[in-house]
Amino acid sequence: MAWGKKKGGRKEPLFGLPAALADLRLTAADRIPGGEDKPKKSAKSSAKRKAEDAVEEPPRERKAPAGRSGAKRRSKSRFGAGLGRLVYWGAVLSLWGVIAVIGVVIYVGAHLPPIQSLEIPKRPPTIQIVGIDGSMLAQRGEMAGANVALKDLPPYLPKAFIAIEDRRFYSHFGIDPIGILRALVTNVLHRGVSQGGSTLTQQLAKNLFLTQERTMQRKLQEAELAIWLERKHSKNEILELYLNRVYFGSGAYGVEAAAQKYFGKSARNVTVPEAAMLAGLVKSPSRLAPNRNPEGAEARAQIVLTAMADAKFITEAQAQASIGHPSYNVKPAGAGTVNYVADWIGEVLDDLVGQIDESIKVETTIDPKLQSVAEAAIIDELAAKSVKFNVSQGALVAMTPDGAVRAMVGGRNYSDSQYNRAVTAKRQPGSSFKPFVYLTALEQGLTPDTVRQDAPIEVKGWRPENYTHEYFGAVTLTQALAMSLNTVAIRLGLEVGPKNVVRTAHRLGISSKLEPNASIALGTSEVTAVELVGAYAPFANGGFAVTPHVVTRIRTLSGKLLYMRQPDERNQVIDPRYVGMMNTMMRETLISGTAKKAEIPGWPAAGKTGTSQDYRDAWFIGYTANLVTGVWLGNDDNSPTKKATGGGLPVEVWSRFMKTAHEGVPVANLPNSQATWGLSNLAQAASQVSPPTAAPGPAPASAGGYRPPQPTRANVRPEAAAGLDGWLMDRLFGGNR
């Protein structure tokens, strides 16, 4: 064994190890310290460490509790912690929910007018249109009936609305949370919107202040306004407002208007079944209107009666009796052609009284009885023969000789088409325009017995023909007009000048633009029915111009006069002698001409038929001293009919209407008609007719200031003079030419 040397200290024995390995021994730094090898600390640090360990560290030797009691303690601990978290987050979410609701309320309220400035709006003005006898013809606007106090209504009427619309009306504050929840559950179960949760107050708020759009914002606004209404008004006031403002279909607002519309009686007098029917309409007024859908309205009324019995508003016996034997008295919905008159009135109303801000009553010249007769005549004739003649539409205008419209039908059925063919539609009048040509000829010196040739004619390549394709040679003007000979009318039109024909037509009342060409004699320029009938009126009244009119007075419902029609100035547009000649000529049309089927027993009548090219329009304008009536039949698309002529369907409609219109009316002769003159009047007739060869000179002005063109040697042909003498001799001795 070898021992190492120690320099300045102890040397360890090497035990025979090489010297190079002598330094590979482990030092204290290389050893993993054990429990006993830890460096010693100071007494102060050890004490501090022990104190900290005693506070922070749990006892090392503690054992967890064993058995079921320990598990329960752990479960309760976890449940308590979860419940705490749930309460905490519930409180947080509730707080944010409240904040969100407040924000939505503020946002919705910001888009409403200031609550303090809200007032129950006035009803929009309505226009009541009454006939010459004071009966109601139509209403425009919102057709609101008079306000009815809640106390004046039968108690079961408002209860019917409460039973079906808002059973808890008297207990909620404007919004019914229970009703909303019930509706929500029902809609979820039915997977659709089958029930609503709006209260009567909400419905009133919507009707008064809001639109009908279905949006969340509108529903929220509706809720806010309902709460405001409940604070401002009593329950009975809200219910009364609701009943007088709610919409019931067919343009009727309020229970009074609805009761008058559907039952022809006041809401004060409706029966239990009728009250149930009115309450049932609120759900879908347009679809359930009883005059359009009686089966649907009755089925809904039975649901209301069941709800009333369930709410104890009526007895089971009353409900069963009403369901089993309903006492409905629904007024039929008819064609409603008087609405064409109402539309015409609406067009002229602004010119008469300007903008209206209160309800008014318009008194008209319409005779309800004649209106019904005119409507039936058009509808029945078209129903019987529209297919045979391919005619789908018709129009009729009847007016007194002073222009007061007594009846107007603007189409076959107003509910199908609101286009007014009597006032708005412009159609070719055909041969019914010829009287203006013949009147112009008379004013230039010709007479009813003037002879003209009926023969083929060509005008710049145009070869017009007569309806029958026949030609009769020399004929008098009376014969030519009665037989509606086209070639004679064209010759006359060219002879007197198309521009003069246009002036004559405009002078008598035609307001449409007329083209002064050769074809004007055959009525190729379009006119409306009302202006054409108005232009015939001077023949029936002695030669005075008229303005077709339908409004006589306009008053407010309180009686304030807003408008009164003044009589037309007596403006003579036809000299009386020419009125007599034209009446004589046009009487012949009904006696032996194209309108032989026209008949009014005992009444002298005159008129003219008209058929446009390709049978597109069929006309007859006829008149007595009592009434001037025009009828048009054709198609809206201007398609040809199956040879419908003015002497056919229009004459039949005209005769049916005029016969009824003249029943019980004293017979009167046409003014200045030579057919009614006696021998004692012939001298006066001869003195009234200027000799056709008289020297030119100004004619004396008539009462209206009209100066008819005077005949001269230059513009009167020899046959005209002979015709005048022959005309007087024929009237005196009954001779024929």
Describe this structure in words.
The protein is elongated. Helices cover 42% and strands 9% of the residues. The chain has a domain at 153-324: Penicillin binding protein transpeptidase fold (Orthogonal Bundle), CATH 1.10.3810.10. It is α+β, with helices and mostly antiparallel strands and 737 residues long. A 5-stranded mixed β-sheet has the order 2-1-3-8-9, with helices on one face. Strands 5-4-12-11-10 form a 5-stranded antiparallel β-sheet, with helices on both faces. Strands 6-7 form a two-stranded antiparallel ribbon. Mean pLDDT is 80; it is low at 1-7 and 675-737. It has 23 helices and 12 strands.
